[in-house]
Write a structure and sequence with these properties.
This protein is of the alpha/beta class. The chain has twelve helices and 15 strands. The chain starts with a strand and ends with a strand.
Length: 392
């Protein structure tokens, strides 16, 4: 199984690049499924083929699906939503308003991410190509499984015990219906388990990698660099950068100006993403819609001998290695500014911040019994040194 996620700033051509890659994989003999976690579905537009909530073969060896998040929400969240609606109704909120208030923000993206895992575990395809939401939404989404797991492991058990302790008293007072039932806690725990499975699957560099799509413009490239750093912080591997809509040199002054500006940005992109493959796609005279056009995009992106499933060594892994009487935890943080990097030990967790992003790392058992004795960031990797506790 191979999973490839495509992300980038909105409008840079993620959907086109993902679709072209999926088509190339299928034509190389891999049974491939193309899907999207973006609520603004545009796969059908790129393929120029109607799609439904069930995978459909759109070309030999290539299936595509438009995830039906509404039905998935009803299955996954029915118990929790039912309790909340009932609580709001007792407070005088009408049923229609209560139903709207209990639809969680961002739930569509979460359920689409769960669908990726479900489809991967089905074992029906050799490759999944995922057209992700724009970078900000994708980063929030990919950080969610670990963040929610941390919360449920530490806070949720206490809340559940409190609810069980209060239920007999609430029943005597005639307020038993205000205490969440066990079915609600079980629904949330199921969601936690599913999201943990998502994190394990998408964080496995042997299975999953992320590909960044950008256009050679200063603002877009800057966001791509921040995205690369954030993906590395959260432990996701990046193996390719695609520079889309590159202007060819021309005779007229307008095109020469664009070509010169983009050439400058492309040089900076190759320098800053050193160690990653950077591929260019030319600006086309017409919008690439339909299988024939996508096939041309794939031919421009991947050479005849290239395997689109394996393009380079992914970057962005966390490692722990032995160092004398202790250990060193290493986390790649490419392109991060030294002043933006912070580390703090909190109990059995290590909190790493880079700018506005924060990751709470649950330390492995061998590090929980160690003291943090130092660390440094060299502009590429964060190193935190641990020493075994002295037995007194």
């Amino acid at each position: 199984m191979r999973i490839i996620l495509f992300t980038g700033k909105g409008g840079v051509g993620k959907t086109t690049t993902a679709s072209a890659t999926a088509l190339r994989l299928a034509e190389r003999g891999m049974k491939t499924l193309l899907l999207s976690t973006d609520t603004a579905h545009s796969l059908a537009d790129a393929l120029d083929i109607p799609l439904t909530g069930d995978p459909a073969e759109v070309a030999p060896g290539l299936w595509a699906v438009q995830i039906d998040t509404q039905s998935r929400f009803e299955r996954a969240w029915r118990d929790v939503q039912g309790f909340l609606i009932d609580m709001l109704a007792r407070g005088g909120v009408d049923p229609i308003t209560a139903d709207e208030l209990t639809v969680l923000p961002g739930v569509d993206e979460v359920l689409a991410l769960l669908a990726v895992r479900e489809l991967a575990l089905a074992g029906d395809w050799d490759a999944l190509v995922v057209d992700c939401a724009p970078t900000a939404e994708t980063l929030r989404l990919l950080a969610l499984p670990e963040a929610l797991s941390w919360y449920l492991q530490r806070v949720f058990p206490a809340q559940r015990r409190m609810a069980r302790g209060m239920r007999p008293l609430a029943s005597l007072l005639g307020r038993g219906e205000t205490i969440p039932p066990d079915s609600l806690f079980e629904a949330v725990l199921r969601l936690n388990d599913d999201l943990a499975g998502v994190r394990q699957l998408l964080g496995d560099p042997d299975i999953t990698s992320v590909r960044l799509v950008l256009t050679p413009e200063a603002v877009v490239a800057a966001e791509a660099r921040r995205t690369f750093t954030a993906l590395s912080l959260f432990g996701y591997s990046v193996d390719l950068v695609v520079a889309n809509r590159v202007f060819p040199a021309g005779d007229d002054e307008w095109r020469q100006g664009w070509a010169a500006a983009q050439a400058k940005q492309l040089t900076a992109i190759r320098d800053s993403f050193a160690g990653l493959a950077v591929r260019e796609l030319p600006y086309r005279s017409a919008e690439p819609v339909g299988l024939d056009a996508l096939r041309e995009v794939a031919a421009a992106l991947y050479g005849p001998d290239d395997d689109p499933a394996e393009l380079g060594t992914p970057r962005g892994q966390l490692e722990v290695e032995t160092d004398g009487d202790g250990f060193v935890l290493r986390l790649a943080l490419p392109l991060a500014e030294r002043a933006e990097v912070g580390v703090a030990r909190t109990g059995d967790d290590l909190v790493v911040t880079v700018g506005t992003y924060r990751r709470v790392l649950s330390l492995p058992a061998m590090l929980k019994r160690c003291d943090v004795v130092g660390g440094n960031f060299d502009g590429e990797q964060l190193r935190v040194r641990f020493r075994r506790e002295q037995q007194g």
